[in-house]
Design brief:
The protein is about 60% helix and about 5% strand. The chain is mainly alpha-helical. Helix 1 packs across helix 3, helix 2 packs across helix 3 and helix 8 packs across helix 10.
Length: about 200
């Protein structure tokens, strides 16, 4: 452990977020337990981190019972720069943990491979956001371009152009990833002389 850093496990993050939202909603532990068909001591143990990990079903039940998204309950808050999240055998700083939980590649992971492992619909959403951000940035200082973007945005023509650009980008990304993968044989073993 690094000196001066506060380490939280995912279970403690979950418990802290449950407590925070329960109190914000003005609920007692007993009231939340009743909503979730649990015993009050179970809610208490989860909030204190004494229970350890919760099941995926419990994650969704707590999110529904508290009127939030499951990802909110998993994401460390802004407790400060001295927070680190212990995941398995490694420690991740709070900002990297938040990014990872919200869908960015885990630290030390090939971002392109991570992106290509996403479902095609998710890849399209990411690219659409990127293209929209670029479009917004390019028109920020140009009122005429900004007006044209607002006028053109959401039309069938704009959607078709966006879909075409996304398809072309996905094709190029897949080609780039294929070119960087080590050559393999039919049985999945690396060929001699293939890239390492």
């Amino acid at each position: 452990m690094r000196a001066g850093k506060s380490h939280l496990t995912p279970a403690r993050v979950f418990g802290a977020r449950v407590r925070e939202l329960r109190q914000r909603r003005g609920l007692s532990q007993g009231e939340l337990a009743d909503r979730l068909h649990l015993h009050r001591t179970t809610v208490n143990k989860i909030e204190s981190g004494a229970l350890g990990d919760v099941s995926i079903s419990q994650l969704f039940a707590f999110a529904e019972g508290l009127g939030t998204s499951p990802i909110y309950l998993l994401t460390p808050g802004d407790e400060g720069p001295d927070l680190e999240l212990t995941t398995g055998g490694r420690v991740v700083d709070a900002n990297a943990a938040r990014d990872w939980i919200r869908g960015s590649p885990p630290p030390e992971t090939d971002a392109l491979e991570f992106f290509l492992d996403l479902p095609r619909s998710e890849q399209r959403l990411w690219l659409r956001r990127i293209f929209q951000q670029r479009q917004d940035a390019s028109s920020a200082g140009d009122p005429v371009q900004g007006a044209m973007n607002r006028l053109f945005h959401g039309t069938p023509e704009a959607d078709a152009l966006m879909a075409e650009a996304i398809d072309e980008s996905l094709k190029r990304l897949e080609e780039a990833a294929a070119a960087n993968r080590p050559a393999t044989t039919q049985h999945g073993k690396r060929k001699k002389g293939g890239r390492q």
